[in-house]
Amino acid sequence: MPRRITHFETHDIRFPTSLTGDGSDAMNTDCDYSSAYVTIFTDGDEPLVGHGMTFTIGRGTDIVCQAIAALANRLVGLNPEDLFKNMGKAYDYVSADSQLRWIGPEKGVIHIAAGAVNNALWDMFARSRGKPLWKLVVDMTPEKLVDATVFRYITDALTPEEALAMLKAREEGKKEREAIVRKDGYPAYITSAGWLGYSDEKVARLTKEAVAAGFNHFKMKVGADLASDLRRGRVIRSIIDDPQFLLQGSQGLDPDSPALQGKNAGPTGAVLMIDANQIWDVPQAIQYVKDLSEIKPWFIEEPTAPDDILGHAAIRRALKPYGIGVATGEHAHNRMVFKQLLQADAIDVCQIDSCRLAGVSEVLSVLLLAAKFGVPVCPHAGGVGLCEYVVHLSAIDYIAISGTMERNVLEFADHLHEHFLYPSSINSKGRYNVPLNPAEGYSIEMHKQSIAEYEWPNGSYWMNRRNNGN
Ligand SMILES: [Mg+2]
What CA–CA distance (Å, rounded) separates 185 from 434? Predict the structure, then answer.
């Protein structure tokens, strides 16, 4: 008897990060990093399990869990092997309920819920083959990988045939690239030093720690107050540009090296990025970032509304003479938005989100689009579970799709990793370790104890807090 998907569970898990200011930025002032989490089960002598989640920041996680249940329900009774045969079709099936489609389509709550479900299926697929997710994908033939990708609505920019030709061209050197990234890790940058809610002292301390840990790309939140942004930016630059704080024995990077071209690197090769989390209108964004040009950022991230493709293009044109680029994507709600950002020359850096896009299948579409347009992908990972996810996606991009990681940097935020069975980690050179455990799938399985403690509203943490009157 083939296995069937029998049932699923959802969990609304909220961590009280608003108490410490972790994750605070110009728009999101009191985030409780949260996870709308789903586990899918099969029957059989050796039953399979798949874990998935999408990231949220507190209130509303219950709504996402309801949407996840509505979509996951479509999978009950199906044979998972039929889904694994063509993961692009599996994506279409989950997102094509003709009534649920009305509350999207492919955007908002229903889409991030589809992301959790698609990611859970990929996790189950990888576990069933005894491989971490990235390895499952890079071992696929180009034909299989094209089948796993969503092409609907993007064929004006990229057809399956073109994607196949790109992937075939990348076959050469795949083994070498896999060996390199396993050994050296994937380049990372750190955001944890520059949250808006931190004092200057805390920013300085965390920046020094990050430099000592081997990082050379740093990101700071901006947009609430120009004077304060300039002050914090100077604090960070004064540390990252000063050789005395470098990792013992490190000379820093050559600011003229190809990897740092156009990044406004300082004398030690350190790069600063700034992130406004959508706070400005277009003219305001241009003026504000010009006023910050003395701190020499590589790019401004999310300068305006995430749906405003032409607005991003206008900001990019206006900032070009200042040598400052534009990055966005963590709130780009589907592959069509990325397609247009690329077609409109609106971005220098493509910041996919592992669960705002509806899972690995749609991420593959955007990785392929970005490779075609020659724009580096630097995934968003400021949140819970996102670092665990994105290292897989960047490894896929490097090994099988773009073939390069020289200019890429993957976000790392040092929060909440202890809740995962297979937490992401950084090596002594400030780079992500590639996940190697054959049992870890997509690395998103959470400890049962963490779920019991932080499930909203009746987990032990939240019960205790209520009982203590706050
Ligand atoms: Mg951001």
Answer: 6
Given a cut of 80, whether residue 249 has pLDDT beyond it is no
- The verdict on 191 and 93 lying in the same domain is no
Determine, yes or no, domain membership for 34: yes
Active site residue 221: yes
**At residue 191, does pLDDT exceed 90?**
no
Residue 137 placed within a domain: no
CA of 413 to the centre of ligand 1 (A): 11
Active-site annotation holder among 11, 51, 219, 221:
221
- Which pLDDT does position 470 carry in this prediction? 66
Over residues 56-95, the pLDDT tens digits come to 999 999 999 999 999 999 999 999 999 999 999 999 999 9
The average confidence (pLDDT) of the chain is 95
Domain coverage including residue 307: 174-433
Q: Is the pLDDT of residue 193 over 80?
A: no
The CB-side HSE value for 225 (13 A sphere, CA atoms) comes to 6
Residue 185 CA, ligand 1 centroid: distance in Å = 23
What is the average per-residue pLDDT within 46-62? Answer: 97
Choosing from 296, 312, 380, 415, the catalytic residue is 380
* 302 Cα: distance to centroid of ligand 1 (angstroms): 7
Is position 296 annotated as part of the catalytic site? no
What's the start-to-end Cα distance of the chain, in Å?
53
Question: Is 464 found in the same domain as 427?
Answer: no
Place of tokens 């992500």: 432
Q: What is the pLDDT of residue 213?
A: 87
Residues 289 and 186 in one domain: yes
- Specify whether 46 is located in the same domain as 194: no
